[in-house]
Amino acid sequence: MSEFATSTAPADVVRRQYLASAAGDLDALRATLAPDVEWTEMAGFPLAGTYRTPEGVTTHVMEQLGKDWDGWAAHDDTYVVDGENVVVLARYTATNKATGKPIDARVAHHFVVRGGLIVRFEQFTDTALIRDAMNN
Predict the structure, then answer these.
(1) How does the average pLDDT of the chain come out, rounded?
(2) What angle do CA 55, 71, 59 make, to 5 degrees?
(3) pTM for this one?
(4) Strand 85-96 relative to strand 33-41, pairing
């Protein structure tokens, strides 16, 4: 097993979360989340709200995105790390299944990583771009 796979460094934990999400590996994604994780999707986003527990996050966020969107992906490109805080600048791409409209939206994610697990997540994105793709 590689050092990256077991690293508790905050940026490594967050990167493993993105890789698991991109691979559709919800077990690996849940393994990056603390049992009492607080995962907040931004007000105005279709899945707005705060979800708790690794199972709650994958059931109510990742699985729902998979139902409504083809190819949903968060492309992480820039990491800013300050202690346990990791801010990732990224881009969402997907195509809405109902409308066939694509999205390409910038996003910022703020993670708090403690003890090698994500304890808090908050999303910031242009929710209007996401909603526009969902409406005919």
Answers:
(1) 96
(2) 15
(3) 0.94
(4) unpaired
